From TrEMBL:
Pfam families: Interferon (PF00143). Residues 1-22 form the signal peptide. GO terms for biological process: defense response to virus; immune response. Keywords: Antiviral defense, Cytokine, Disulfide bond, Secreted, Signal. One of its GO terms (molecular function) is cytokine receptor binding. This is Uncharacterized protein. Belongs to the alpha/beta interferon family. Its main location: secreted. It is found in: Secreted. GO terms for cellular component: extracellular space.
Length: 179
């Protein structure tokens, strides 16, 4: 009887722990499932509405599609890190000289606020690990080839807006495959 009780307790504690631990490994799984898309829908609209039509000019830097394809099959935590880092890199771009930009200021601000909220929610989700070098290189090249070489002109920023839209759409597609 005594022995049975001890075993039951051990068993119960094991079950409890595995439930709690599994949850803490992925604190934000539910959050991504339920809220990522809502925020994303809002900042996509703002990105569309803050200026005129998205430019038809081609962006002279290619998004790392091969890295993206790897992410589609990656572990959940790696995917979350990829989302986190991509949004962080977009922020760094929008921190550059925007004097020439003609977009509606309020919508631009709101866009950045919502994107930042998305970043805040992702940031603490999983433990950080090594960076995605290929992704970092892409954003660095984008900065150099578009913003710097085109002298932070309004047209340069239109290209950044176009590429940002594309990249955020890719993240949405990735999130849709995550579970
Ligand atoms: C914007 O795009 C729409 C739909 O493609 C088009 O009808 C409209 O003429 C465009 N506006 C400008 C200013 O190019
Ligand atoms: C998210 O990105 C920020 C900025 O690079 C970093 O400090 C943080 O550790 C990242 N979090 C994860 C989970 O990768
Ligand atoms: C770059 O743009 C700034 C204003 O945004 C201007 O003062 C400067 O002369 C430009 N430089 C070149 C090389 O076009």
């Amino acid at each position: 009887m005594q022995r049975f009780t001890m075993q039951s307790w051990t068993y119960l504690i094991l079950i409890l722990c595995s439930t709690v631990c599994a949850k803490s490994v992925c604190l934000c799984c539910d959050w991504i499932q339920d809220h990522y898309g809502t925020l994303s829908g809002k900042y996509h609209s703002l990105l569309d509405e803050m200026g005129g039509n998205i430019t038809e000019q081609e962006v002279p830097v290619d998004f790392p599609e091969s890295l993206y394809r790897l992410m589609e099959d990656a572990q959940y935590e790696v995917q979350v890190r990829f989302l986190n880092e991509t949004i962080h890199e977009i922020f760094k771009l929008f921190d550059e000289n925007m004097d020439a930009v003609t977009w509606e200021e309020k919508k631009l601000d709101d866009f950045l606020i919502l994107l930042h909220r998305q970043f805040q929610n992702l940031k603490s989700c999983v433990s950080p690990a090594t960076k995605f070098k290929r992704l970092e290189r892409f954003f660095k090249t984008l900065n150099k080839k578009v913003l710097v070489e085109m002298n932070y002109s309004a047209q340069a920023w239109e290209l950044i807006r176009k590429e940002t839209k594309y990249v955020l759409e890719k993240l949405d597609l990735l999130v849709a495959t995550m579970h």
